[in-house]
């Protein structure tokens, strides 16, 4: 049996129902003919020049990405535009593109389940369920096998995710014992209140902003400690999950692989060589 683009789409939409997507999102088949045969599929977080180059080199017929290529409405895809150029390259090469974004965030299992598993958590429930008692929703709450100091937990997160120049930064008492953890793949500071109400020891997400993080920590006491990772790194574990979905549904007919191209945009990281006192001034 020869698998088609439509077969891959059907498998992914069973796992990540499009109705789970937020109203502002753009998920599904971006380009490609559902009737075309597929022998090899590449999974990635971002559809950018680097991942398209890899797809061409690897001879794939389909890319499955987490981030939408065309999230905002467009009136054209001219080849001299960055995204238009990507669309043209994909179509000319006969490569289909499918995106699963917030529907993959909310599905069970979904993006945050993959992040939780990478860290070593046993998932208990969603951080923000679709409805009370539901297994679907944004983020996950889970437990570690045993409590460990926050400093060790931060290192655990860094070791579990692919390396980036951004690295992993954290806010909290290094000696605080961590057992219960909330995670949310991608930008998650809008769920800081959910993590606090859940009573977890730590919250792992990406793109934490200065003011929301500072306001979260200001009360002190039992506020969850924060771990801020690179956006791309927090969602990359999902790629293997999605690849396994397709492999299981189309056993023996489709070869799947996960791109290891780092599409995190940050390429340098530096710290000041000056010495600073506790108030931030130079000594």
From TrEMBL:
Gene Ontology MF annotations: metal ion binding
Keywords (alphabetical) are:
Metal-binding
UniProt signal peptide: none
| A cellular component annotation (GO) from this entry | cytoplasm
Q: Which domain of life is it from?
A: Bacteria
Family the UniProt entry places it in: Belongs to the GTP cyclohydrolase I type 2/NIF3 family.
Assembly and partners?
Homohexamer.
**Protein name listed in UniProt:** GTP cyclohydrolase 1 type 2 homolog
Q: What is the lineage of its organism?
A: Bacteria, Bacillati, Actinomycetota, Actinomycetes, Pseudonocardiales
């Amino acid at each position: 049996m020869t698998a088609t683009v439509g077969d891959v789409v059907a498998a992914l939409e069973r796992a990540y129902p499009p109705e789970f997507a937020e109203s502002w999102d753009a998920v599904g088949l971006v380009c490609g003919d559902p009737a075309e045969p597929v022998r090899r599929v590449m999974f990635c977080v971002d559809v950018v020049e680097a991942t398209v180059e890899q797809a061409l080199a690897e001879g794939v017929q389909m890319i499955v990405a987490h981030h939408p290529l065309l999230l905002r409405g467009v009136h054209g895809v001219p080849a001299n535009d960055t995204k238009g150029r990507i669309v043209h390259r994909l179509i000319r090469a006969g490569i289909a593109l499918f995106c699963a974004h917030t529907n993959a965030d909310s599905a069970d299992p979904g993006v945050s389940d993959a992040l939780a598993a990478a860290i070593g958590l046993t998932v208990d429930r969603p951080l923000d369920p679709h409805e009370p008692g539901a297994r679907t929703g944004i983020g996950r709450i889970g437990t570690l096998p045993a409590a460990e100091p926050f400093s060790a937990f931060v290192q655990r997160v860094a070791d579990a995710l692919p390396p980036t120049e951004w690295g992993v930064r954290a806010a909290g008492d290094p000696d605080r014992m961590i057992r219960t953890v909330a995670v949310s793949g991608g930008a998650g500071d809008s769920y800081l209140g959910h993590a606090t109400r859940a009573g977890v020891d730590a919250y792992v997400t990406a793109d934490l902003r200065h003011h929301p993080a500072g306001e979260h920590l200001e009360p002190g006491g039992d506020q969850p400690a924060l771990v801020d990772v690179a956006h791309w790194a927090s969602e990359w574990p999902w790629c293997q999950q999605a690849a396994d979905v397709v492999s299981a549904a189309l056993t023996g007919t489709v070869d799947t692989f996960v791109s290891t191209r780092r599409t995190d945009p940050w390429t340098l990281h530096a710290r000041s060589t000056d010495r600073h006192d506790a108030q931030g001034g130079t000594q």
